[in-house]
Amino acid sequence: MTARPATDAPRTLFDRIWDDHAVVERDDGYTLLYIDRHLMHDGSAGCFARLHERGLPLRRPDRSFGTPDHFVASGPEALAPLRRKALEAMTANAARHGFTMFDLGDARQGIAHVVGPEQGVTQPGLTLVCGDSHTSTHGALGALAFGVGQSEVAHVMATQCLWQRRPKTMRVSFEGRAPEGVTAKDLALAMIAKIGAGGGAGHVLEYAGEAVRALSIEGRLTLCNMSIEAGARAGMVAPDETTFTYLSGRPYAPQGADWDRALAHWRSLPSDPDAIFDREARLDASTLAPMVTWGVSPEDASPVDGRIPDPAAAADAAAREGLARTLDYMGLTPGAPIEGIEVDRVFIGSCTNSRIEDLREAARVLRGRKTTRPAWVVPGSGLVKAQAEAEGLDAVFRDAGVEWRAPGCSMCVGMNGDVGRPGERIASTTNRNFQGRQGPGVRTHLVSPAMAAAAAVEGRFADVRRML
Amino acid sequence: MQPFTALRAPALPLPLANVDTDQIIPARFLARPRDEQRGACFHDLRLDETGAPRPGFPMNRPAFAGARILVARGNFGCGSSRESAVTTLVDNGFCAFVAPSFGDIFFNNCFQNGALPVRLPEERVEALLAGLEASPGAEIAIDLEACVLTGPDGAADRFEVDGFRRDCLLRGVDVVDLTLGHAAEIAAFEARQAQTRGWLDRLP
Fold first, then answer.
1. CA atoms of B195 and B199, how far apart (whole Å)
2. Which fold, A292-466?
3. pLDDT, mean over chain A
4. What are the tens digits of pLDDT across the range B115-148?
5. Which residues make up the CATH 3.30.499.10 domain(s) of chain A?
6. Which of residues 78-117 of B touch A (CB under 8 A)?
7. How do beta strands A301-303 and A291-293 pair?
């Protein structure tokens, strides 16, 4: 266990939040950590069943929020019985336990990691968990947020706490300004390519540097979302004026005198300038390009002007074999330029890239152009959808030949009927290019919304910087 | 929960890195109840498009039948938080996993299900993989009390496991019950927080 620093020692943002939530500290290095906010989705039914088996109440319904996202349909098709059952169970559990629910039919429904920040449920300085690995998203507002499995979800339901070992800290600094056409998604993929899909394991990441400070909250949410793809359960950005402006007036953000008290606390949170991190990583944002993944791990990412790697050049036999297997699955030729790889289909959405800014970036590329491949846009929430429609983005999408659908996880998660066909190559704004993630045999390439839009127009990966 | 103390069992080599939870159990099986997820374990790696076993996949080789320990390369269990990744392995007889590193959430989920993840140095894992390939069906012994893993070659390695998690496994502790035993401290924390961070309790 990292020793708890004396109160006058320099501390990180993470240290402050952790120390502020320690309920019990054991001699063996484990801490009982208080959880301020618990987000639930439609995969939570089994966790409630465990609570019911024990005859325990949901300890803090006032600290619990839910919205269905994994199993919902993004189109008019009928729900498979098991999915309908999961959605009905969630509605019934909300009625039984009295937590705040943004259910289907409510404009506030959407992907939990879009809805939490949008409603102001997510705030600086708090601890937040959800039974989903992309809970790291919420760190964008300066919260300590991480995903847990179903047993730990049930534990939070029963106790509002979790036993945790204090993780290590790692600062990832993006120096300089990201060039035009290089988005938060590209920063994330460049980082994962550099440190590896397991590079952040055991650590909480704090993103810092000029390029991060320049990001909107939407961009920071994208960056923190991908922390788990670098192996880190949590990623955070220190709260600043961008954060406070974003939160001000949101329904569940503090109001009136509470706002002033909360703001004073939030301003005290950022890491001290001389705080020590266990590890440091640095990237020069000004040298980055739009990224495309070519393999089956998010670390298999390359600038769009790069080429598919050659197994013959691999370091050892295991790497050579692994790379050959990857390229076989992906149907790619060693040495081929990434620009020029034809795609079959395009998906814009997911907790990574379905917020209003993502849709604006895609629309900027699609305006006045026609897609040559089937493409979907799935907004992250009912409110994002309404905002996009108020700005006329839905018309831009429709005019370009893109299908404008209803909020949910859709093609990111492969468990709600929205999947590709075996062998299909998809340019996708999601977070995982794992084998079969978007359906058995599907070949997923992770890109930013602008790059996805460019691929939909060109029918192949194209450098979006030429189209802006 | 069943205590985990010591185990001596055949081990399955899975010489792959970054095995994500979508490989361990594809998402399309997650809506099903646990007793229907047993056959989903490594589904798309194990079976081809027609449902026929892929002969090269280690789980399909008769020599590895009855394996209870799985040895893999780095970042095993990365990806989603689905606890079914652990439970489908447990329901297929596996109760210990050996790798140079694990996905953090998978690692935590193991302890919730009476399973032990063991981190060993990469060179040692490579030696175990080679040894298991050379003598299929060979056994690995794990002594959690002493934190020692003995390979088929007889070489013993000490491994580290958090004291808290180790105690819980050794005694089969129910963690919810343990935490409910701290009800007074939790209530005191909440009272303190209501004073200092009162806005968290006031919803619109």
1. 9
2. Aconitase; domain 3 (3.30.499)
3. 97
4. 999 999 999 999 999 999 999 999 999 999 999 9
5. 13-281, 292-466
6. 78-83, 86, 101-105, 108-109, 112-113
7. antiparallel
